[in-house]
Specification:
Layout (H helix, E strand, L loop, with lengths): L1 H19 L29 E17 L3 E15 L2 E5 L4 E2 L1 E6 L2 H6 E13 L5 E5 L2 E6 L6 E6 L7 E8 L10 E18 L1 E7 L1 H5 L1 E15 L3 E5 L2 E6 L8 E5 L7 E9 L3 E20 L2 E6 L1 H5 L3 E22 L5 E6 L8 E6 L7 E23 L1
Antiparallel strand pairs: 1-18, 1-23, 2-11, 2-18, 3-4, 3-11, 5-10, 6-9, 6-11, 7-8, 7-10, 12-17, 13-16, 13-18, 14-15, 14-17, 19-23, 20-21, 20-22, 20-23
Length: 391
């Protein structure tokens, strides 16, 4: 009778436990080691192919050289060399008052001169005698210029030197000793037509890696106004990288170069043209590309349930689709859910087309999320696919 009561109470308690735990309560039997030749595999969803190793990539940096419009040209232009105002020239028996205008030119300026002349206005004169002008001791003007008029005279460019002097004087009034010859001039100008070259220089900086692993440079110009009679020329560190006649057909002009010596630090960029050419731009920028090595270490996360764990040992498998370069080894580093470290190194080279199978035991994993990292040594790496974990 007492046994029957105990049995009834036990049945009732068991029913209560089923209700409380939603029928999920189970009694863990003694673990039974599975037959390794008869796995009840539960494959993980196959994943896309992935790469592990080192790959050569390209990095780049974009630098603004100028946002201000600029131009390069080689054209004839008028240039003011020297000038005088309020020139008062007098010459008589008791008075000699010439004027001198001195100016200096560099050798490059002399070479660029195509023509040179003087212009002046006559404010007042008594016309008692002639007005004379000399350029480097050679007379180029003599006469009786009238008041209120403007005059010009050409200079002999063969007389141009580094240091130049123009003398403005008058002939004596002679026997009219009481009144000297007078010429009062305004706006006395020395002008020249020069073949003026306008070029533009920029600099761009490279660090050590960018210089050593330099792949390509790209100069980006934004055209504005072109007279493409002559080619535009671009030099990088004094090496010519571009020489073409270009027209304003596109919103931007790309000039790419790779076969050039660049170095760490400051590098120079020069843009110019030849006689007859004229190019205008709204701005300029530089894009520098260099090779960079990227280390790819993919990570797989293994979420192991209690039932998965009880079915261990198992296997990890993956397929070798291809080999890049000369990898030396493949290392699999496991960080278990208990934060313990495990490492397996496959020292022999993997073969393209093979399927790699690795045994895993309860010592390699823990219940929860386990982190598996793939690492390759040497140059290059492996293309892997169909990674699966079977318990």
């Amino acid at each position: 009778m007492d046994f029957a009561r105990v049995l009834v109470v036990s049945i009732v308690l068991f029913g209560v436990l089923l209700v409380v735990f939603g029928g999920e309560f189970e009694i863990d039997p003694d673990p039974v080691e599975p037959d390794p030749n008869d796995y009840r595999f539960r494959p993980v969803e196959p994943e896309d192919a992935f790469f592990v190793g080192t790959v050569e990539d390209t990095d780049f940096v974009h630098r603004i050289l100028t946002r201000t419009p600029f131009g390069v040209s080689f054209e004839e232009r008028e240039r003011l060399i020297a000038d005088l105002d309020d020139v008062d020239v007098r010459r008589g028996l008791f008075r000699n008052q010439p004027h001198y205008l001195e100016f200096n030119l560099t050798s490059d300026e002399i070479d660029s001169i195509r023509s040179m002349d003087v212009e002046f206005d006559v404010a007042e004169t008594n016309e008692l005698n002639s007005l004379n002008m000399y350029f480097n001791d050679e007379r180029f003007f003599s006469g009786y210029p009238e008041a209120g008029r403007s005059y010009s005279a050409e200079l002999d460019t063969n007389l141009v030197e580094g240091n130049n002097v123009i003398e403005i004087s008058a002939d004596s009034s002679g026997w009219r000793f009481w009144a000297p010859t007078v010429y009062m001039l305004n706006n006395f100008r020395v002008r020249s037509e020069v073949l003026e070259e306008r070029e533009r220089e920029f600099t761009f900086e490279l660090d050590k890696q960018q210089a050593e692993d330099f792949r390509m440079g790209r100069l980006v110009l934004r055209p504005e106004k072109f007279v493409p009679e002559e080619p535009i020329v671009v030099e990088v560190n004094d090496q010519e990288v571009f020489r073409e006649r270009v027209s304003r057909d596109d919103t931007s002009l790309w000039i790419e170069f790779d076969d050039v010596d660049v170095h760490q630090g400051e590098n120079s960029l020069r843009i110019f043209t030849y006689e007859g050419g004229s190019y205008g731009f709204r701005g300029a920028s530089m894009v520098v590309f260099w090779y960079s090595t990227e280390v790819v270490r993919p990570v797989k996360y293994l979420d192991v349930s209690r039932s998965d764990y009880r079915r261990l040992p198992g296997k990890m498998t993956f397929h070798v689709d291809g080999i890049e370069g000369m990898p030396e080894y493949l290392s699999l580093r496991m960080t278990t859910a208990d934060d313990e470290k495990r490492e397996l190194m496959i020292e022999k080279p993997l073969k393209e087309g093979e399927t790699v199978s690795i045994d895993i035991t309860r010592d390699d994993l823990a219940v929860g999320e386990n982190r598996l990292e793939f690492i390759v040594g040497g140059e290059g790496g492996y293309y892997l696919s169909d990674f699966q974990v079977r318990y």
